[in-house]
Amino acid sequence: MTPKQLKIILPLAILAVAIVLMMLLKQGRQPAEQREDLPTGVLVDTITSQQESLIYRVSSQGTVRPKLMTNLVSEVNGRITEVSPNFVEGGFFAAGELLVKVEQDDYLTAVKAAEANLARATAALEEERARVRVAEEEWASFTDGLAPELGLRRPQLARELANVRSAEAELERAVRDLSRTEIRAPYAGLLQSRAVNLGQFISRGTVLGNILGTDLAEIRLPLSDHDLAFMRLPGPDNPNYPAVELSAVVAGQLQQWQGKLVRTEGVLDERSRVIYAVVQVEDPYQLQRPGDSPLRFGRFVQANIEGIASGAVFRVPRNLLRPGNQLLLVDADNKLEFRTVQVQRTDERYAYISAGLSDGEHLAVSALPNPLAGMQVRLGRVNGEWQEVDSTSQTAQAGD
Question: Where are the transmembrane segments (predicted)?
């Protein structure tokens, strides 16, 4: 074959091979997969509104303090000869327990001297009474007339009687001073601070220490006018004391105690414009019930006060409430709707809706960047559970 013939045949052969390969590739190609159109609209999680009746809880906070707090003060002079083992900072003691004893020698001597003085006065009174009887008999033997007071020694008798009463008072004072050498606890409590010790000389008016009563603890809780609208304070027309639940984190664990609201201080604070309610807790250190966690003085606690019944309201998470008291709803056509509602009360977690909602309506809980009224959406989770949607919708949600 000549070169000239080769130049003509070779391009034709290459073109024929290309045509054959193109036909083979066309026959082996699979048809394109047909996909159904995905539904339009973003998935929105919702919760359904449900009307309920509940009892409001009013929240506040305060510091635990003792109801009774006393400075122990000496009423006598002398040297301290005895100190109770419980007379230490943080020590507990019972009512009437001896805490400090002062040297008694001088006071015992004073009691003896007062007793001797009373004995002398009593003897002088008896002697004067005998003289009065003798004077009355002598006067009667001479005349039947009225005897003068001085002749019957009545003034002398009154003087001796006054001496006896004065001696009795001196003895009572001496005995009282002797009893004051034993300084006892006026009530059950604990010692907060101590200012004296064994062997120290003290005088009348010396502060020995500061004690706190452990029978009752009190917590002052600030309440605003808005809070007062949802609770009933105790008073002449309401003898019931609202229950109060106190809580605090102690050693990393949440502890709770029960108390009752017993009174208010009755005067608004001029700076904060709040009124203080007082909650009492019995046996805060759990001395009668060992094993329970004590409610120590000085601890800051949260308080939930039992309030009034709400009637029929809708309780929704507070973060769903938009400016202007609006909620974002999904209507029956799966379109977004902004609804203005009447809010009766809000707290840290919930808003309580009294009007503007009905049972079973869908409240949007998903975070939508730019929601518009009438926007088409699809229901995703309702009350935390997936709705029955097709597989493509779930795949699209998973891809998101």
Answer: 6-25
φ/ψ (deg, to 5) at 362: -95, 120
The letter for the amino acid at 206 is T
Of all residues in the chain, the percent with pLDDT exceeding 70 is: 86
> How far is Cα 77 from Cα 128, in angstroms, rounded to an integer?
39
Residue 384 CB-density burial (10 A; 0-12 exposed, 13-18 middle, 19+ buried)? exposed
Residue type, 226: H
Among 24-33, 182-191, 330-339, 365-374, the minimum mean pLDDT is found in 24-33
- Residue 91: name the closest of 181, 185, 219, 228 by CA: 185
Task: With CA atoms as reference, report the closest residue to 216 among 64, 47, 44.
Answer: 64
Say how far apart CA 70 and CA 189 lie, in whole Å. 10
Nearest to 41 by CA among 399, 395, 393: 393
Q: What residue spans of 185-334 are helical by DSSP H?
A: 225-228
Residue type, 160: E
- Residue 370: pLDDT band with limits 50, 70, 90: confident
Reply yes or no on whether the pLDDT at 253 is more than 80. Answer: yes
- Rounded to the nearest 10 degrees, how much is the dihedral formed by the CA atoms of 200, 205, 207, 211? 120
> Which ranges constitute the DSSP H helices of 181-258?
225-228
- The two structure tokens encoding residue 190: 């604990």
Q: Which residues of 161-191 are buried (b: 16+ CB within 10 A; e: fewer)?
A: eebbeebeebbeebeebbebbebbbebbbbb
pLDDT tens figures, 148-163: 665 567 788 888 899 9
- Mean pLDDT computed over 205-232: 91
Structure tokens at 197: 């010790």
pTM: 0.70
